DNA sequence: CGGCCATCATTTGTGCACAAGTGACGTTTT
DNA sequence: AAAACGTCACTTGTGCACAAATGATGGCCG
């Protein structure tokens, strides 16, 4: 019965998992409300990583850099490519791979987004004091 | 060019958004590895909330309690129902609504899962000291 | 060399998450 | 009572996230 469960004293909204999900939800709401060009969080991350990577990058490798699996990466890359923000060409030395690179358009969009991303991070952390903000980031790094 | 972006000094893996997502990912990996009965995180949360709610609950209301929108709730409820963990019946006083309730089977499964959920939370927070764990939960509450 | 195994990109299937729209029903307001 | 507005459940469409499988290719080892 319900009293059995109640006696277990488990508070859903005190669990890290529940709070991580809700915090992430709030962040993504802020992000999609401010992001120019209609990019999603992962489209931005992927584009940014590709733009700042010095050498050539394959699709799977790029996905791994932003913690996406191969199947998810495929979709994100396809959407970025459809918007002419990135380009792919066959790797000459490995017939399995495609080498990805950003387009001029992609880099221009990225430059405009970067200041906004700072603003989005600020807004997400706004309920916390500067010290708390640093603490949160430090602790999240440890459990991610 | 890349140097333009580099000079902007934006570190992706220091951003709250990126870290929230990765922390959530790790937590969900732990969860799906330990969860009995193959329930997902949201299936558990929904079932738990329904089981511990004293009065009758409609579908949309239940979804809101665990921060899901109506469209998402529909799917989660359908899967719980298909497994005979919850039941729905038409609300006599409001023809738009269905009143949800847990089945005996649902409550039994839940009772077995609760200790595991505690273990999952523990595992997720394992990299942190007890004080840090409390701090993280406190800060996450503020930004969720 | 030839077999073995890892990796690459891709596909299929399932499950959240949210936006936008629909028709049925309730409530409130005039 | 009629109109206006809100809510309920549901649908469609898009986008991540991951498991599992596939065929092509590359590296390694005996």
What does this protein look like?
Chains A, B: It comes from Paenirhodobacter populi. 2 copies of one chain form a homodimer. By secondary structure, the first copy, chain A, is mainly α. Chain A has helices at 2-7, 16-34, 41-52, 59-65, 70-82, 104-125, 130-142; strands spanning 57-58, 86-90, 98-102. Chain A has a domain at 35-118: Arc Repressor Mutant, subunit A. In chain A, strands 1-3-2 form a 3-stranded antiparallel β-sheet. In chain A, helix 2 (16-34) packs across helix 6, helix 3 (41-52) packs across helix 5 and helix 3 (41-52) packs across helix 6 (104-125). Chain A is globular and about 65 Å long. Chain A starts with a helix and ends with a helix. The model of chain A has no long low-confidence stretch (mean pLDDT 95). At the A-B interface, helix 1, helix 2, helix 3, helix 6 and helix 7 of A face helix 1, helix 2, helix 3, helix 6 and helix 7 of B. The structure holds a DNA duplex (30 and 30 nucleotides).
The CATH topology of the domain at 35-118 in chain A is Arc Repressor Mutant, subunit A
CATH class of the domain at 35-118 in chain A: Mainly Alpha
Q: How many β strands of chain A by DSSP?
A: 3
CATH architecture field of the domain at 35-118 in chain A: Orthogonal Bundle
Query: In oligomeric terms, what are we looking at?
Result: homodimer
Q: Determine Rg of chain A (CA atoms, Å).
A: 19 Å
Specify the CATH homologous superfamily of the domain at 35-118 in chain A: Winged helix-like DNA-binding domain superfamily/Winged helix DNA-binding domain
Percent helix of chain A: 55-70%
H/E order of the elements of chain A?
HHHEHHEEHH
Using CB atoms under 8 Å apart, which protein chain pair has the greatest interface? A-B, 55 and 56 residues
Average pLDDT across residues of chain A?
A: 95
Largest sheet of chain A: 3 strands, antiparallel
Give the class of chain A from helix and strand content and strand pairing: mainly alpha
**How many angstroms does the end-to-end distance of chain A come to?**
37 Å
Unreliable segments of 5+ consecutive residues of chain A:
none
Count of DSSP-assigned helices of chain A: 7
Share of residues in strands of chain A: 5-15%
GO biological process, one term (chains A, B): response to stress
Organism (chains A, B): Paenirhodobacter populi
GO molecular function (chains A, B): DNA-binding transcription factor activity
InterPro entries (chains A, B): HTH_MarR-typ (IPR000835), MarR/SlyA-like (IPR039422), WH-like_DNA-bd_sf (IPR036388), WH_DNA-bd_sf (IPR036390)
């Amino acid at each position: 019965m319900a009293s059995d469960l109640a006696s277990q004293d488990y508070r859903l909204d005190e669990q890290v998992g529940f709070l991580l999900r809700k915090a992430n939800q709030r962040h993504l709401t802020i992000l999609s409300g401010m992001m120019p060009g209609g990019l999603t969080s992962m489209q931005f991350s992927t584009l940014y990583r590709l733009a700042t990577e010095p050498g050539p990058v394959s699709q799977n490798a790029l996905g791994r850099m932003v913690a996406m699996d191969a199947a998810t990466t495929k979709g994100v890359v396809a959407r970025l490519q459809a918007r002419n923000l990135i380009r792919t060409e066959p790797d000459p030395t490995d017939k399995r791979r495609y080498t990805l690179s950003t387009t001029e358009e992609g880099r221009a969009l990225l430059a405009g987004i970067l200041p906004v991303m700072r603003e989005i991070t600020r807004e997400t952390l706004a309920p916390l004091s500067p010290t708390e903000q640093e603490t949160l980031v430090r602790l999240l790094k440890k459990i991610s």
